[in-house]
Amino acid sequence: MSSTLAPRAMTRRLRRGLAARAVAVLAALAAALGYRLLRIRDRGALGVPDGAVPYRTTVFDDTVPGVANLDPPLLAALRRAGAEAAREGVTLYVNSGWRSPEYQRQLRREAVAEYGSEAAASRWVSTPETSAHVAGRAVDIGPPAAAAWLSEHVAAHGLCRVYANEPWHFELRPEAIEHGPPPMYANPAEDPRTRR
After folding, report:
1. What value, to the nearest 5°, has the Cα angle with vertex 38 and ends 37 and 44?
2. Which of 29, 140, 166, 186 fits as disulfide partner to 95, beta carbons 3.0 to 4.6 Å?
3. Are 106 and 114 in contact (CB under 8 A)?
4. Measuring CA to CA, which residue among 153, 152, 150 is closest to residue 139?
5. Is-contact 82 92, C-beta < 8 A?
């Protein structure tokens, strides 16, 4: 009888160990996929064609409309910066780029729900009519270390932070190559371009 218990105990121990490893792998996979799916799924029928950007999309990804539909001079500057960053071991990921008006409207509705009013939401999300993202003239870069790298290299690429409260948001300012970045607005609500 004891000879049958030992193999059973070993089998159980082995199964538990394998199950624990499988759960850890699945948890990591779910976290990665869940992040991607949450960013897209939570916006109803809106998805990648509307500007949702899948997790770990780089500035070089032409298959994602949020990148491919950026204004060509902005995209070219981003790719030059991305190539330089890669040589220094930094990857510039696009968290958000071009957005359809419908996608921007949804983001604005979510911001109003989160912050409690149109005025409070305007500090974070512009309307579709005034958004630089809808025009393809803005990009949100991540992770924070990549955005910080880009902030330090604006003189070479003309990619500037525009809002003090959004260290990830960049727009092309070619004059910054020669004259340095212009002063930042505190937030999008302070930007005269968003007050139509």
Report:
1. 95
2. 140
3. no
4. 150
5. yes
pTM: 0.77
Ordered per-residue pLDDT tens for the chain, 196 residues = 455 556 666 555 666 666 556 545 655 554 454 433 334 444 567 899 999 999 999 999 999 999 999 999 999 999 999 999 999 999 999 999 999 999 999 999 999 999 999 999 999 999 999 999 999 999 999 999 999 999 999 888 999 999 999 999 999 999 999 998 999 999 999 999 988 6
Distances (CA, A) of 171 to 49, 157, 191: 22, 11, 13
What is the spatial distance between Cα 14 and Cα 6, in angstroms, rounded to a whole number? Answer: 12
Strand locations in the chain (E): 93-96, 139-142, 159-161, 169-172
Distance of alpha carbon 60 from alpha carbon 157, whole angstroms: 16
Alpha-carbon 185 to chain mean position: 21
Q: Phi-psi category of 136—alpha, beta or left, where left has phi over 0 and alpha has psi -120 to 50?
A: left
Q: What is the DSSP letter of 194?
A: G
SS3 193: helix
Q: Which two tokens stand for residue 172?
A: 């092309």
